[in-house]
Amino acid sequence: MKELPFARPHIDDSDRAAVMEVLNGHILTHGPACTRLEQAFSQFVGEGAYCVSMSSCMAALHMSYFSQGIGPGDEVLVPALTHVATAHAVEMVGARPVFVDARPQDGNLDPVAAAAAVGPKTRALSLVHFVGIPGPVAELAGLDLKVVEDCALAVGSRLPVGDTGELRHVGMWGDCGCFSFYPVKHLTTGEGGMFLTKDPDLARKVALERAFGVDRQHHQRRVPGLYDVVALGLNYRMSELQAALGCSQMAKIEKLLERRRQNFTRLKNALSEVCEIQILDGPGNSHYCLTVVVAPDRRSELQRSLKEDGIGTSIYYPQPVPRMSYYRERYGYRAQDFPVAEAISDGSLALPVGPHLEPEDMDRIAARLKEALARCPA
Length: 378
Ligand SMILES: *Cc1c(COP(=O)(O)O)cnc(C)c1O
Known about the structure:
Blueprint lengths: L12 H12 L7 H14 L4 E5 L2 H11 L7 E5 L4 H9 L3 E5 L10 H7 L4 E7 L8 H4 L5 E5 L7 E3 L6 E3 L6 E5 L12 E5 L2 H10 L30 H11 L2 H19 L6 E2 L10 E4 L2 H13 L16 H7 L7 H9 E4 L7 H17 L3
Parallel strand pairs: 2-3, 2-4, 4-5, 5-8
Antiparallel strand pairs: 1-9, 6-7, 8-9, 10-11, 11-12
């Protein structure tokens, strides 16, 4: 029986050749591959997006707050239902994350709860596009806050701009967007990420602070070894090996996204008449996974049954961030503070739809899930 893992990086001969080409040269960092990847990503997103390659999405998120001067004394609204990196980035600059509950239909931040959580110290809002389903960008546009979009799972997610008929990629709605190229995401560089903004000044500042605050990059130094430091910074650069892999992945991104869309649609249709589950979906979805929500006491049984059939699953996210030990001990936590985030954390199962799977595999996943539901009555 064929194994259907939850996710698998999509690496082919063109990817291997791209990395070898870098290894056969002598430029391992500060080189042309990072520039090519930034250009390819900008072209993919459109609207003249300014892109800065980063060592990870976490690094891009940290830089987003650091470079916009958010720090001690400031509060940032953060969805309770997200990867911990979203909240850690706020903690890292010394600001306080104020958690906001999710909405039930798609797991994204509830815009009404977000507006209600704004206080005198609120400076920014972290807008996560939950498992690739775009969040409520239009509803949140009215709040007078810096908006940092966490687009880690949302490459290819676009939403219409008013009724102009045009689509805008996520990351271009707020002040900046952060993407992840971790192995199981829509494209990979091993580890890596992208910072994106429509503001050229912010892009320049992030590029500077990403590399120690040094005023000239290697190739810009007229006298070798001579440079000045004009800002406080970190080393959050991407290497040329990673960037070359990223360029080769970008060359097939449309194909990878299309396969995800086909798989997701086929699985969603196959599960549409199953009344015991709720499927999370929404316009502009980039189909990272297909999340089903079941009664919490049935989830582990379903997960186990699928595993016996060689079908891998995952959970997004295993706990609301404020319930995780670090945050619970730091800020306190009361059960039912975030009822929707809790229900999704405790009762959801993420099913695989990645490009490592064929549309026919979706029929097997749907059949096994239905059997397992019948075997473990509510
Ligand atoms: C994976 C992920 C991150 C972290 O990405 P890294 O590139 O591993 O730092 C952040 N936010 C979300 C929503 C993610 O899914």
